[in-house]
Amino acid sequence: MSQNIVLHQWEISPFCRKTALTLDHKGLAYEKLDYNGFLGAKVVSLSRAGKLPVLDIDGKRIQDSTRIARYLDEHYPEHPLYPVDPIENAQAAVWEDWADESLYWFEVYFRYIDNNAMEQVLDIVCAGRPKYERIAIKAALKVDFALKLRMQGLGRLSYDDIVAEFTLHLDRIEAVLARQDWLVGSERSIADIAVGAQLAEVVRTSQLRDVILARPNLGKWLKRI
């Protein structure tokens, strides 16, 4: 087992949460390094894409939560993240991709549109940093979120339409969990971790937490993750 595993992360990132959960799933001990406030400028030296998570493991530096998960399954096969059965493996990968590429934008939107949620985000990303950094980071996040949401498409829709679409997704997840304990197969997989990491961040900061937790199977599933 690797003795020096370091997860470079933003505490508020669902993708960093996803990677932490994959490491926990594997039973691997690791250190977290947070890049709060203006420390985020150092991320470009870790990742050419300027994004986190980045994982230092086995003398390697791996970027991107999905690439990290696949690396862990290849090199630490105990407690697999991706099911062995080829059909379940494909289903888990589809759930993961949907969480990373679609569900994520709902989480971004609810943080951007809700001032209380945004303030909670700033409390986390600016923890331990000088107060002046909060002002600059808040302005940068608002501009960044607005631009990305508009380009992605959600930024062009009404709030009511977005909540309705998000609620429909929750209903679908609830329907799956009403019949089985996990999204794919009989054990926790990357599907549960990827989707759960996104929803856990909505629960953490957004007023939509009550909409999520009101669904009994979904709420119990999140606790199990």
From TrEMBL:
SUPFAM superfamilies: GST C-terminal domain-like, Thioredoxin-like. One of its GO terms (molecular function) is transferase activity. Pfam families: GST_C_2, GST_N_3. CDD domains: GST_C_family, GST_N_family. Gene3D superfamilies: 1.20.1050.10, Glutaredoxin. Residues 85-225 form the GST C-terminal domain. Residues 3-80 form the GST N-terminal domain. Keywords: Transferase. InterPro entries: Glutathione-S-Trfase_C-like, Glutathione-S-Trfase_C_sf, Glutathione_S-Trfase, Glutathione_S-Trfase_N, Thioredoxin-like_sf. This is Glutathione S-transferase family protein.
